[in-house]
Structure formats: C-alpha cells, structure tokens
Design a protein that fits this description.
Blueprint (H helix, E strand, L loop, with lengths): L1 E3 L9 E7 L6 E3 L6 E4 L9 E3 L6 E3 L7 E6 L12 H4 L3 E3 L23 H19 L9 H11 L4 H8 L3 H12 L3 H18 L6 H7 L5 H11 L17 E3 L17
C-alpha cells in the first residue's frame, strides 16, 4: 500500500489518500468513525463506493490484486463534498452514482489507469487526479460552519468527557449533539467511545504493548473487562485475539497473519 497525506487545502476534511494493488486475502477493516471513498483506477468516478463513517467492522474480500484508490476523510470531513448528512451514511456502503450533492457532480471523467510499475510510480498520478478533483469540487464556503464540530472532535479524541467538551464550547448539549450527528455520523457519546477504542487498538497492536489491564487503566476504561466489551462491540472480537504486528494498517486484520485463532464467529460481528 502507498499512502500519503492529502493536499494542504484538503487537510481540514481529508487525512490521507492511498493506492494499493487490492486485497490478496480477506481482511476485516476495523472502525474508527471515519468515512472512506474507494475508487478503481482507469474507471469512472461513478463506479466508486463511499463507505460511510464506521462504528463496526467491515469484511473486505480478496480482489484478485485489482488496484484501488482510497480517500480517508476526517470525522466530519464529508460535509464539503456530499449533501447527505453523515448520519444517513453511517455504517453504510453506497455506490457513488447514487449520491448527489456538493462536489460529486464535479468528480467527472475517468481516473488514470494504474499502470504496471511499482506502487509509487503507478499510484501517484491517480492520487494527483483524485486530489485535484476533490479540491475543485469542495464547497469551501461550508468550512467555517464545521469549526464547532472540529473542536468537539478534538476534545473527545483527547479524552475529555462529553460534559467537559460541551461546557468548554458553551453549547447546549442537545443542539451540539444534533450538529455532531449531522456532520460526524454519530452522537457525542458514541463517537467518544469510538475514539477511545481507536486509541486502545493502537495500544494493543504496538510492538511494546502493555498488558491489557494497564492499557485499560491508562485510557480510562473502568477495568479490563470494560476494554474487552468495547472491543467486542466495535470490532466483534476480544483484544487478546490480535497479534501485536499490524496488517497493512492498525485497522486491517488479515486472516492467518494477525488473528491468533482464525476469524471471529460471523455471529459476533456488530450488526
């Protein structure tokens, strides 16, 4: 996988763009409360797929090494590009051709082909095209309206309580919650849980990972069973089933590479 930061002008809404040859084995993509846009090099924009803000694991099947291009949006990052509220897209995968609104109508034409050179040489021109189209299609006038949500996201990711974040912003909790759901896809409390789950995921997969009890204490979980319950809720399995060596990213779990005892029972995955 070739992954790089996005253009500076896209920075408030997009955290990264990536190119890869496609999944060679089935993978679970663990949730982080963000939306992803996946496109096919050489194909039409409308053939792409938007995976809405995620709070549950998503299974990705092998793609016969077919290349793919991706855009990783920040929490709240969909607003300048799509008219649909993020709450309407949460935990859904929607073909891009079915989405209207700001930006998408200007994502026209075909993407450059992937080529046959190395990842960097083949992926860079495609990523350039994706970034240019996103920058051209962004509704920059909406940037200011997302500032309140951005501050709230930052506060929750820093581990502050919903009450503390609301008080710091001087906002009424119900009104802030409605705005947060519209832009981020989840309520304040659920997103706070997702942010802490993401921190726990990084901690569990670190090469020098601490014991689970210490991780739970450092991240503010009530105890280790509380950490395990949150993992089961968002990932579908207990943290002890992960090896410390990550897959392509800490959010990717590849069968036989990272799972200690095979796939989780499909019945345990969040629905």
């Amino acid at each position: 996988m070739f992954r790089r930061p996005c253009l500076p002008e896209l920075g408030p809404w997009v955290s990264a763009v990536w190119w890869c040859r496609g999944a060679a084995a089935a993978e679970l993509v663990l949730p982080a409360g963000r939306a992803h846009l996946v496109l096919c090099p050489g194909g039409d924009w409308n053939a792409g797929m938007l995976h809405g803000p995620a709070s549950r694991a998503r299974l990705v099947m092998p793609a016969a090494a077919e290349p793919a291009v991706g855009v990783v949006f920040r929490p709240g990052g969909l607003r300048p590009f799509f008219a649909a509220p993020a709450s309407d897209l949460a935990d859904l995968s929607v073909p891009l051709r079915e989405l209207g609104g700001r930006g998408r109508g200007r994502l026209a034409g075909r993407l450059p082909g992937a080529g046959s050179a190395g990842a960097l040489a083949a992926g860079a021109p495609v990523l350039d095209r994706v970034e240019q189209a996103l920058a051209a299609g962004a509704d920059l006038a909406s940037a200011g309206t997302g500032q309140l949500v951005s501050v709230a996201v930052r506060g929750l990711r820093e581990g502050h309580s919903v009450a503390a974040v609301t008080a710091r912003l001087g906002a009424e909790r119900r009104a802030l919650g409605a705005l947060f759901r519209r832009d981020v896809g989840f309520g304040l409390k659920r997103y706070a849980r997702l942010a802490r789950f993401e921190q726990a995921l990084w901690a569990v997969r670190a090469q020098d990972a601490l014991p689970l009890g210490l991780i739970a204490a450092r991240l503010g979980f009530a105890d280790q069973p509380h950490l395990t319950r949150e993992f089961r809720c968002f990932a579908g399995f207990a943290p002890g089933r992960l090896h410390r060596m990550a897959g392509p990213t800490p959010w990717h779990v590849v069968h036989d590479e990272t799972f200690k005892t095979g796939w989780p029972d499909p019945g345990t995955l969040p629905s």
